[in-house]
C-alpha cells in the first residue's frame, strides 16, 4: 500500500503521541494502534495486525520491533521508518529529561508516589494489549485455554516465558489452537 505525505504525517503524529503514552513499553499501546490502524484507517485487517506483532515478537531483538513491522505492512520501508522514528524520538527525549530530573529528587514523596502509581497503570495497559491480541483466537476454546494456562504459569511459577512461547508454537503447529 502506498500512503501519501498527509497520511504518513498522520501516522507519524499518531505513533509519536502513543510513544509518550507507552507506560510499560510500546506493547502497552497496542490497543490504540489497533484502533487507529485497523478500525479507523483500515490499512490492515485483524489477522495482519496480529501476525505483524507475533512475527516481531518471535524475532530476536528489541520488543519495539513490532512497530517497524506494522509500519512496513502499512507503507513499506517508508512506513517502517516513520513508525520507528515516531515511536523512539519523543519517548527517548522525555525519558532522558525526566530521569535526570527524577534522580536529583529520588527521595521526594511525589516522585516515589508517581513511581508507585505507575505499576497498576502498566498492568492494566498490558492486560488490554493481551485482550486485543487474543481477538482472532477468541472463538477457539483451545486457544483461550492455552492463554489461560500461559497466564497461570507465568503468575504461579518461575518458568521461563520462552518455554511458554515454545508450548504455544507447538500447539499451533499441531493445530490444537
Protein architecture, described:
By secondary structure, this protein is mainly α. The chain has a domain at 5-111. Helix content is 76%, strand content 0%. The chain has helices at residues 5-21, 30-40, 46-58, 65-104, 109-133, 141-156, 161-173. The model has no long low-confidence stretch (mean pLDDT 88).
The level of helicity is over 70%
Strand segment tally? 0
Strand coverage percent: under 5%
Order of helices and strands: HHHHHHH
Estimate the mean pLDDT confidence: 88
The number of helical segments is: 7
- Major beta sheet summary: none
Radius of gyration: 18 Å
Helix/strand/pairing class, anyone?
mainly alpha
Q: List segments where confidence is low: pLDDT < 50 over at least 5 consecutive residues.
A: none
Straight-line distance between termini: 31 Å
Please tell me what the overall shape is: flat
How would the blueprint of this fold be written?
Elements: H1 5-21, H2 30-40, H3 46-58, H4 65-104, H5 109-133, H6 141-156, H7 161-173
Helix pairs in contact: 1-4, 3-4
Summarize the structure.
With 177 residues, the chain is mainly α. Helix content is 76%, strand content 0%.
Question: What key attributes describe this structure?
Answer:
7 helices, mainly alpha
Amino acid at each position: 500500500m502506498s500512503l501519501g505525505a498527509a497520511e504518513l504525517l498522520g501516522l507519524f503524529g499518531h505513533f509519536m503521541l502513543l510513544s509518550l503514552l507507552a507506560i510499560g513499553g510500546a506493547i502497552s499501546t497496542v490497543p490504540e494502534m489497533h484502533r487507529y490502524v485497523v478500525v479507523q484507517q483500515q490499512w490492515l485487517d485483524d489477522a495482519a495486525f496480529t501476525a505483524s506483532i507475533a512475527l516481531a515478537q518471535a524475532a530476536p531483538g528489541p520488543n519495539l520491533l513490532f512497530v517497524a513491522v506494522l509500519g512496513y505492512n502499512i507503507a513499506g520501508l517508508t512506513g517502517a521508518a516513520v513508525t520507528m522514528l515516531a515511536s523512539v524520538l519523543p519517548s527517548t527525549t522525555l525519558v532522558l529529561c525526566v530521569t535526570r530530573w527524577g534522580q536529583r529528587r529520588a527521595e521526594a514523596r511525589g516522585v516515589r508516589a508517581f513511581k508507585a502509581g505507575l505499576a497498576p497503570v502498566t498492568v492494566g495497559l498490558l492486560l488490554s494489549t493481551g485482550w486485543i491480541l487474543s481477538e482472532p483466537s477468541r472463538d477457539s476454546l483451545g486457544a483461550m485455554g492455552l492463554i489461560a494456562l500461559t497466564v497461570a504459569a507465568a503468575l504461579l511459577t518461575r518458568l521461563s516465558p520462552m518455554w511458554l512461547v515454545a508450548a504455544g508454537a507447538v500447539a499451533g503447529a499441531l493445530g490444537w489452537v
